[in-house]
Amino acid sequence: MLGTVAEVFDRVMDVVMVAVGLGCVWLGCRAVLRPRQPPEPIQGPVWGVRAWGLGFVLLGISLAIETVTLMTGGQPGWPADVIRWVAGPLVVGSIVTAFLARGWQRHRARTVKGGRRV
């Protein structure tokens, strides 16, 4: 009985992980296709938003493929690792860029009052 509950729980978690992967793909596609209206977590330059979106698309694809592969009894291969090594720096780099852009924008807002430098 306990083995059956654990198997059901594992399958439910696998389905949740596939859904998370597809959600990452959806969120990334929104950012890539509409960079001027990105999701709230990533606000910044257009190229930074698109890099974040591309990274999320790759990350979601990798997560979904690896989870489905493990569900069917296969072993994840090196393509999933390569995609993750590309997606990780894209996502992290674009988040750093977004924080720097926000800081720069706040700095400019403080130094410019009424159209002139203070």
Question: Could you write a compact summary of the structure shown?
Answer:
The chain is mainly alpha-helical. It is 78% helix and 3% strand. The model has no long low-confidence stretch (mean pLDDT 81).
Q: Can you put this structure into words, describing what you see?
A:
- It is a single chain.
- With about 120 residues, the chain is mostly helical.
- About 80% of the residues lie in helices and about 5% in strands.
- It has 3 helices and 2 strands; from the N terminus they run H-H-H-E-E.
- The chain has helices at about 1-35, 45-70, 80-110, and strands spanning about 110-115, 115.
- The chain has a two-stranded antiparallel sheet.
- Strand 1 and strand 2 form a beta hairpin.
Helix proportion: over 70%
Q: What is the straight-line distance between the termini?
A: 73 Å
Query: What would the average pLDDT be, to the nearest integer?
Result: 81
Tally the helices.
Answer: 3
Briefly note the structural class of the backbone: mainly alpha
Taking the sheet with the most strands, its summary is: 2 strands, antiparallel
Helix/strand order, N-terminal first: HHHEE
Q: Give the overall shape.
A: elongated
- Strand line-up in the sheet with most strands: 1-2
